[in-house]
Amino acid sequence: MRRDATADAAARYAEVRARSEALCAPLAIEDHVVQPVVDVSPPKWHLAHTSWFFEAMLLAHASPGYAPFHPAYGYLFNSYYEGEGERVPRAQRGHLSRPTVAEVLAYRAHVDAAVMAWLATQPPARWLDRLALGLQHEQQHQELLLTDIKAILGHNPLRPAYACADTAVVSLAGEHLPQAAPMGWLEHPGGVVAIGHAGDGFAFDNEGARHEWLLAPFALSDRLVSNAEYAAFIGAGGYQDPRHWHADGWDWLRQNAIAAPMYWFRGEGGDWWHQTLAGPLPLPPQAPVTHVSWYEASAYADWAGARLPTEFEWEAAAGRGMAWGDRWEWTASAYAPYPGFRRAEGSVGEYNGKFMVNQQVLRGASFATPPGHERLTYRNFFQPPLRWQYTGIRLARP
After folding, report:
1. Domains and CATH numbers, the chain
2. What is the pLDDT of residues 232-276, one digit of tens each?
3. Residue 11, preceding bond cis, omega within 30 degrees?
4. Interatomic CA distance for residues 191 and 310, integer angstroms
């Protein structure tokens, strides 16, 4: 193994690991433990889990003689890997007052030192690939950290702000990016298109195998649906009209008394406001609507006389220059394996494949996505009711 390859890996490792801690630096100690809803994990848990991943998926296999930092941490910080044994149920992660934040940071420092020492041994390329997976995994958790921090603070009656002023870590202005108006349409002739990852760069296993897909001619909107456009849907009675909703979505809406996107609320004068990482602010009309479920995205598209794009239409249009990256965009596609998909051997094979049921694909990225983590073939996926992520709406039509 070339020394420059391991040196590059060490530099990238240090950079990614430092960013996770920088994202948590503005938090109070109390913020690190809160879990307001089951989908949110406490920031302290993210910091520990990403360290456990390097222990369990890399050091335990590639670094002879490595001993886990603490014998119970696998139980505390395993997320969903059945092959790695029992674990704390997801809904109970907020019960873990111990280990303390200081102890978790000591755990991270221990793992960091072990990884750096291992890299100094010039490990084989296949294990550097596993290290790259661990770093991409941590970047996924950095995106989750921002959305989970927003949920933690946003569920607090005081509506506190996330006081991160370091724009090198994250620019909070990304929540309010204006878009061009009016909406236009990008036409695509259809035909046979190549879908999926190709080349030597990193990709998750669910992005392959690259394959061909036949598309009918279609058009996608050249920007995302705005807050003002979505507010018009609300004003027109969209949440009271079952004609636009799937049956599951209509049941979800009524059972949970949903009447607007997550974090929207009425100000004293009756205007729409929303909770942001910077605290409560007036709703910017031209910014992309966000924090909507797949049910809401689909209902809005139906009301607007359109539909959601398939993930194949999205990738084909993005490959021809369609602007993207402001929000994760819901698609009409169920999360399923591509032809030729195969799970990896061992616990790491549980990373994506076992979730290929009852979920919808999202494409794109958001301002919460770490720099360099976005790519054209990235397949995110969530269940239809979930909306705590920065999810948005792009329209499609024949």
Report:
1. 3-170 (1.20.120), 175-397 (3.90.1580.10)
2. 999 999 999 999 999 999 999 999 999 999 999 999 999 999 999
3. no
4. 14
